[in-house]
């Protein structure tokens, strides 16, 4: 379910067996309208990469990357093989944690705390007392620069290099010969337990390094300790439904280990792509959520345009082999979690950008999804296609990418809609009349909202099933409505047709066109269909009122 708790799947045929979400970490596609508020005016990660002779992405272009609004400079193709668009972040942030949480359905209205002047004593003193070690640096730093500046002192004293960035991070760097990785991880667990509430940073990160003075280098033993998501995520919903919920790369850390049936870490993008390829060859049912972090960690933050372009080219070369492994019931969504423009010289931090969205699979129609508000649209889509229950403000685009009619919607037969209305009728509250009514409302994008009648001892506050379903759809932002099925009967037994009452017809007229279909369900599941114009001739609508 997506949106309101009773929104239902598109159709039995539209459900997917396996869905892969692949996050090209930091691969933004242009400054969002509010980027200047984040100090990121004019940023554009992909445009910077396009300036490099190292960028060769014919496969991503063939999928529709260059057809996305604002990415025409990459070169659009006449017949893209996938659906394409871009997403604007709804959350107030531009970091990995908030970005991934939003992809998984959670919008963060408030930014996570940042420390441009370093951490206050109320944070550091308990940490030093618990670890028994001093602290060096304590300011925003580049990860490579801070170990070059403080590495020698750390090796000599054993004090921990603690630093942050423009993002909500508490990072601890230590030489592996001075503080073995497992000990460093324990220090991070201590910090994570302490950093809650107003100091609840998004991530505590272990940053091990090796080498000698003047030649220190970070290792692949990085480990993230994230703040636990405040609400149910897509991963939680998939796992709760008894499906496979697989995390590849940083996913386990970003979600604090929650909502996964299995996970594996990556040592590099290549390692992550190998893991994704291995899962594509396995027979699982559910979600595989993949993060490829090198784009961000090795090239975005280090402002390495050519390196970023090469990494994109490597992913592009890998993609066809991965797609060949997909079955008829598989879907791949390629996106990002924020930007990190390697050509932006003002800072070395993440950048506030739109992110690209490519939807690929044997059932996917090559449609332009345009610009959509919210990464959480991905969560809504995946939840709908896997038929799992998830409360999110996201709006599913499943009907548009998997549709089989001219408008891109998925066919929902009157009989199928009638079944959903009959199911909704079982939830009715009708202790006074004894007549239970159910409704199932079909939106043009394929989303279905169910409703039932709810009676009250005072007759006036009672509400019909049709209006319950319709009001839920309107609340979720739907205005393009296609059809409704209605059924009812004494004590929940259908004995005849139940046409909508006059009030319900008038409410429908507020939001529906004359050709809106009303399927009245009779005994045995028989269906009689009329248009709204037939049931409400000479109707009065908002346009008539405005004209008076």
Total domain units: 3
Helix content: 25-40%
| Major β-sheet strand ordering | 11-10-12-2-13-14-3-15
Cα gyration radius (Å): 27 Å
Measured by DSSP, the beta-strand proportion falls in 15-25%
Number of helices: 18
Output the CATH topology of the largest domain: Alkaline Phosphatase, subunit A
CATH class of the largest domain: Alpha Beta
Structural class, from secondary structure content?
alpha/beta
CATH second-level architecture of the largest domain: 3-Layer(aba) Sandwich
Strand tally:
20
Straight-line distance between termini: 41 Å
Q: Name the shape in a single word.
A: elongated
CATH superfamily of the largest domain: Alkaline Phosphatase, subunit A
* Biggest pleated-sheet summary: 8 strands, mixed
Q: What is the compact description of this entry?
A:
The protein has helices spanning 45-50, 58-63, 96-103, 121-131, 143-157, 181-194, 234-240, 251-254, 269-280, 294-300, 305-324, 376-386, 398-402, 414-425, 465-475, 502-511, 532-535, 542-547; strands at 7-8, 18-24, 83-88, 135-140, 160-164, 169-175, 203-210, 217-218, 223-226, 244-248, 262-264, 286-292, 330-335, 355-360, 368-373, 435-443, 448-452, 481-490, 517-521, 527-531.
Could you characterize the architecture of this molecule?
The protein has 548 residues and is of the alpha/beta class. The protein has 3 domains: 7-105 and 244-399, Alkaline Phosphatase, subunit A; 121-226, 2-Layer Sandwich (Alpha-Beta Plaits), CATH 3.30.70; 414-547, 3-Layer(aba) Sandwich (Cytidine Deaminase, domain 2), CATH 3.40.140.10. Helix content is 31%, strand content 21%. It has 18 helices and 20 strands. The strands form 3 sheets. Strands 11-10-12-2-13-14-3-15 form an 8-stranded mixed β-sheet, sandwiched between helices. A 6-stranded mixed β-sheet has the order 1-17-16-18-19-20. Strands 4, 5, 6, 7, 8 and 9 form a 6-stranded mixed β-sheet that branches. Helix 9 runs parallel beside helix 11 and helix 10 packs antiparallel against helix 11. The radius of gyration is 27 Å and the shape is elongated.
């Amino acid at each position: 379910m997506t949106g309101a708790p009773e929104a239902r799947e598109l159709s039995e045929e539209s459900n997917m067996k396996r869905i892969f979400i692949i996050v090209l970490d930091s691969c933004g596609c242009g400054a969002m309208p509010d980027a200047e508020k984040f100090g990121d005016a004019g940023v554009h990660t992909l445009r910077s990469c396009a300036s490099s002779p190292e960028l060769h992405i014919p496969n991503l272009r063939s999928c529709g990357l260059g057809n996305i609004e604002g990415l025409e400079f990459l070169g659009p193709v006449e017949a893209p093989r996938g659906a394409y668009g871009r997403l604007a972040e709804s959350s107030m942030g531009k970091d990995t944690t908030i970005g991934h949480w939003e992809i998984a359905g959670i919008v963060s209205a408030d930014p996570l705390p940042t420390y441009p002047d370093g951490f206050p004593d109320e944070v550091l003193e308990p940490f030093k007392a618990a670890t028994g070690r001093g602290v060096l640096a304590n300011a925003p730093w580049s990860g490579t620069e801070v170990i070059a500046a403080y590495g020698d002192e750390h090796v000599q004293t054993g004090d921990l290099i603690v630093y942050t960035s423009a993002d909500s991070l508490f990072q601890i760097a230590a030489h592996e010969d001075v503080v073995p990785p497992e000990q460093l991880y324990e220090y991070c667990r201590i910090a994570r337990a302490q950093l809650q509430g107003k100091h609840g940073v998004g991530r505590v990160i272990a940053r091990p390094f090796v080498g000698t003075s003047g030649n220190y280098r970070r290792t692949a033993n990085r480990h993230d300790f994230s703040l636990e998501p405040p609400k149910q995520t897509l991963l939680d919903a998939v796992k709760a439904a008894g499906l496979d919920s697989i995390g590849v790369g940083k996913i386990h850390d970003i979600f604090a280990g929650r909502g996964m049936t299995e996970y594996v870490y990556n040592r590099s993008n290549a390692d992550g792509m190998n893991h994704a390829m291995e899962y594509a060859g396995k027979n699982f049912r559910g979600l595989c959520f993949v993060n490829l972090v090198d784009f961000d960690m090795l090239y975005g933050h280090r402002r390495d345009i050519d390196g970023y372009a090469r990494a994109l080219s490597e992913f592009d070369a890998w993609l066809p082999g991965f797609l060949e492994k997909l079955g008829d019931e598989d879907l791949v969504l390629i996106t990002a979690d924020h930007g990190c423009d390697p050509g932006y010289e003002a800072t070395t931090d993440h950048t506030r950008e739109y992110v690209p969205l490519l939807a690929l699979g044997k059932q996917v129609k090559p449609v332009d999804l345009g610009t959509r508000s919210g990464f959480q649209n991905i969560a809504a889509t995946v939840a709908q296609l896997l038929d799992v229950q998830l409360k999110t403000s996201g709006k599913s685009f499943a009907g548009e990418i998997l549709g089989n009619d001219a408008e891109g919607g998925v066919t929902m037969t009157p009989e199928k809609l009638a079944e959903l209305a009959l199911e909704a009728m079982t939830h009715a509250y009708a202790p006074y009349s004894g007549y239970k009514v159910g409704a199932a409302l079909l939106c043009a994008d394929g989303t279905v909202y169910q409703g039932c009648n709810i009676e009250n001892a005072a007759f006036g506050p009672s509400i019909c099933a049709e209006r319950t379903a319709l009001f839920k759809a309107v609340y979720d932002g739907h205005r393009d409505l296609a059809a409704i099925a209605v059924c009812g009967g004494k004590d929940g037994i259908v004995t005849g047709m139940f046409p909508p009452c006059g009030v319900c017809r008038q409410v429908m007229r507020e939001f529906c066109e004359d050709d809106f279909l009303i399927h009245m369900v009779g005994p045995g599941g028989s269906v009689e269909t009329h248009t709204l114009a037939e049931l409400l001739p000479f109707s009065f609508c908002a346009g008539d009122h405005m004209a008076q």
